[in-house]
Design brief:
By secondary structure, the protein is mostly helical. Helices cover 79% and strands 0% of the residues. α4 packs parallel to α7 and α8 packs antiparallel against α13. It is globular.
Amino acid sequence: MGSGASVGEGVAVAEERPGPVAWRNLVVATVGFTLTFWAWDLIAPVAADFDEDLHMSSFAQSVLVAVPVLVGSLGRVPVGALTDRYGAKLMFPLVSALTIIPVLLLIPAHSSYVPLLVVGFVLGLGGTTFAIGVPLVNSWFPPARRGAALGVFGMGMGGVALSGYFTPRMYHHSESLPFLVLAAALAVYAVLAYFLIEDRPDRPVPSTPLTTRLGQAGRLRVTWELSALYAIGFGGIVAFGVYLPTYLKTWYELDATDAGTRAAGFALVTVVFRPIGGWLSDRIHPAVVTSSALGVVALLAVVQAFDPALVPGATVCLLVMAAALGATSGAVFALVARVTPQAQVGSVTGIVGAVGGLGGFVPPLVMGAVYSAKNSYSIGFMLLSDLALAGCVYAYGRMRDAGRGKAPAGPAT
């Protein structure tokens, strides 16, 4: 853990440029977000393997992969507010350590549907760390660099790509291996995070009750506007992350490993383009970046609805949509940093992150239900196109004026 002098130095330079303390916090938070996001997405890449024993319907499998998304999304609301109160130094190691429990419980639970569903519910805890890292990073970086910094932190969603690639391979080697490896990694991280993460010593600590703070954040119009945009952008990423292996396996008849590898490639593209979206938002208004990216998603979702061949048509469509969704996610949180007071960043992040995650909970259920009823995924892609187009128009028409005349949420002084 850094000395008091190093913390003071980091605070002194934070207004002009990020100091070493800021960069250390960013790196450690990003690693933690990556590991917990891997845990959050641990079921989806091997759900098809579980199905060999469980014989689930398409809808039952959709529910199984969507439950951790639901819980992790809703959990961001209280976790974000608790981070405002107690700081990331406590919350990041605590949540990482607690996530070990459901990861290990997957070993005895994966052969029975109901226990697996219950463990998946608890596994959702891993998805809450997003609401811890955003206020931490936001507090250490000045406004001119905040979009890019939050985009780098958002690269932690690459845990989905790691999960999609490594989890099925380790599972096929030994059914317990991916769960044991991830549990060990989380344990090591929890210890390191306790010593390496530092909250800003001058950060504002709210004294009002959690419910009051959430109520205040909920009364901000911009909270819900940002939530809707994030539900489309990040929700699309989560939905593809958890359901793309099933879609590729069912519609394009790929085996589980190949489907997981391609889904990991999709997730990797979203990871790369999230900081690009944040970087662009530091130079162009984040609402313009959001609008442009969602316009691309709207167009290509229509193309994918016509079921192009996997190579090259569907591959190109899905990868470009991944890039646009990643850029959208980075741009929306650059907008959060621009219009939200520092003392409320955790609470607003919790609500926006929750709604964004819920945006990823619904599509897998819709896709599974539509496929079961119509033997087609086209309706689902057309709905995605409609939502993306609505977000494109709203972001450009309304959000360019959000926060105008208000100072950005800078580090507290």
